Amino acid sequence: xxxxxxxxxxxxLAVTLFLLFPFFGGGISxxxxxxxxxxxxxxxxxxxxxxxxxxxxVTGLLTLVQTGMLSxxxxxxxxxxxxxxxxxxxxxxxxxxxAAFLSWxxxxxxxxxxDLYFGLITLAFSLALVTIAQQWTPVTGGFIGMNNIPxxxxxxxxxxxxxxxxxxxxxxxxxxxxxxxxMLSPRGRAMEAVRISPATAQSLSISPRKIRTFAFVFGGAxxxxxxxxxxxxxxxxxxxxxxxxxxxxxxxxxxxGGLGTVIGPLIGVMLLTITQVAIxxxxxxxxxxxxxxxxxxxxxxxxGVVGSWNKSRFAIPRKLPELAHEIHADGILLEKQKINExxxxxxxxxxxxxxxxxxxxxxVSDVNFKLTAGQVHGIIxxxxxGKSTLVNCLTGFDxxxxxxxxxxxxxxxxxxxxxxxxxxxxxxxxxxxxDNLSVIDNVLVGIDSRKPTSWLxxxxxxxxxxxxxxxxxxxxxxxxxxxxIADLAAKPASICSHGQKRLLEIVRAVAxxxxxxxxxxxxxxxxGTELTMLSTLISNLRGTGVAVLLIEHNVDFVFQLSDQITxxxxxxxxISAAPAEVRASKAVQDAYLVGGR
Length: 597
Ligand code: ADP
Ligand code: MG
Fold this sequence. Notes:
By secondary structure, the protein is an alpha/beta fold. It has helices spanning 2-24, 32-58, 66-83, 92-110, 115-135, 137-140, 161-183, 186-196, 198-203, 208-234, 244-257, 264-278, 286-300, 304-311, 387-394, 416-421, 439-448, 455-460, 463-482, 498-511, 528-543, 555-561, 579-584, 586-593; strands at 153-154, 157-158, 347-358, 361-372, 376-380, 402-407, 410-411, 424-427, 516-520, 547-551, 564-569, 572-577. α2 packs antiparallel against α10 and α3 (66-83) crosses α10 (208-234). The structure holds adenosine-5'-diphosphate and magnesium ion. Magnesium ion (MG) binds next to α15. Adenosine-5'-diphosphate binds at residues 358, 361, 363, 381, 383-389.
C-alpha cells in the first residue's frame, strides 16, 4: 500500500513541477515566454477537457460542440473587452453565461435525440457556430476574428504573462476541485446512472432528461470559461478556435488520461503537451503522430492511464466507514422505516382492464390486478404469459393500449419517474446494477432518491454535506451487510456474481424505502443461502406494511411466501386466490403446474 501511495504522490509532484515551470525558467526551453505560452495553452486545454469529461465521460453525452462553446466564450469576452474599458478578467462570467445559455438552447432543441443522433446535432451546431463566426462580420470580425484584446491589468499596468498564467492555474485548480466534488456527490452518481442505464435511473426517481440538461449546461459553462481564458491568452479569437481539428486534441487527451475519471483529464493533457512539445519540429506530420498516439493508447490502455490504473491491482480502494453496530443475524432491514398500520389491507396499486399487445400478440389482455399493502402478492405463469409486460405497465415503463393503472386510487400516467417518486420501487428481470459504480455507490443512488442534497452544497463540500454523505455510506453499508454482501462494498458492481447483482439491486430498491416493491423473478440464480436471505427480507418488508409484488418461477419459493397468488396464462388472469386454492385449482394444474412448464 505504501509503495502505491508513493507512486501517486510522485505523479502528483510531477504534475505540480510541470505546471510550475514558467516560474523557474529553464525546463522545457530556456525561453520563459515559450514555457508560459505552452503551459497556458495546456492549462486552458485541461479546463475544456474537464468539461468534456463531465458531459461525455460521466454523463455519456457524445458531444462535438465543446470547442464551439469555447469559441462562444472567447467571442463573448472579446466583444465586451474591445468595447468597454474593463479588465478582461471581470468579463469571464459573461463568457460562462453565454456558453451555458447556448448549451441550454442546444439540448432543448435536440429533444429526445440520443447517442449518435445527439452527437450529430452537436456537430451541426458546431459547424453553424463556425459559420456564424465567419459571416457575422460586424459582431465577430468575420474570417479575421477579433484582435488586440486587452491584456488583464492592475492599477492601469499590464499584468506580466507569468502572472496571468498564475491566475489561469488557480482557475484550473478550482475547476478541478469542482469536477471532483461533483463526481463524488449524489448529482455525480445520478449522472453516472444516466450514462450506464437510463431505465435504472428512472426506476430510482432520477430524470435522465434533467440530469443530461444539467450536465450539458454545466459543461458548457466550463467550456465558456476555457474560451475566455483562450481569448485572454492569445489576445485574439478567430473562427478556427471552434473548428473540429481543435476538438481532436481534446479527445486525445481525455482518452489518454481516462474517460470518466477524476484526474484523467489532467494526466491526459500533461501527456499530450509533452508529446506536442517533443514533436513540434515535425511540421505537417504532427496531426498524424497525435492520431497514432490516440490509436496506440486505445489498443494498449483502452481505459486511459488512470482508468487502467484503477482497474489494476495497484488501485487504492476508497476507504469505507466502520460499521456502527453489530449486524442482527435475522437481518431487520427496515428498522428505520415506520410501520404504516392504517394503510395495511388497502389496495395500493391496481390495473383496471389493462391490455397491451405487440404486433397482434396480446401480451396482456384485460387484466384486473390488485396489490394490497402489507401483503406479498405472487404472480406465476409460464414464459411469455405476460408477467413482465404487466409489471412494466404497473410501473410506468410501458403504456397500456387500453385500461388504466391506479396508484392509491389515482390514475397514473405512463411515466416511470412518477411511479418511483410515489414510493414504487422495482427490480428488473435482468439485473440492472450500475456496473461501473462500486457496490456501495449503487446503494447510495437508492438512498439519494429520498435524501436530496443541493448540488451547490456538494460542490463546496460543506461540513453538513460531508456529514450527511458519511451517514448515507454507513446506512448503505449496513443494508449491504444485512444482505450478506458488505465485503463487496468497495468493489465495482461489475465483478459481482449474478446472484450478488440480484441482491444488490434488491438492496438498492429497498434503500429507497418504498411502499410498494415489485420484484421480477428475483430468485433466479440465487444460491440456497441467498434465497433464505431474500425470503427473510421479503417477510420483513411485509411486516412493515410494504406491498410486495413477486413474480417468480421458483414455485416453492412463491407459494411459501405469498398471501395471494395470481396465475397469468396467455396474457389473461387464470385465477387469483390464496396459495392453497391456487394449488388445488384444476385449471392451473392443467395450464401450468403440471404440463405448462
Ligand atoms: P413473461 O414475463 O411472463 O415471460 P413477457 O411479458 O415478457 O412474459 O412477454 C409476453 C409476450 O409479449 C411474449 O409473447 C413476448 O414475446 C411479448 N413481448 C414482451 N415484450 C415485448 C416487446 N417489447 N416487444 C414485442 N413483444 C414483446
Ligand atoms: Mg418476464
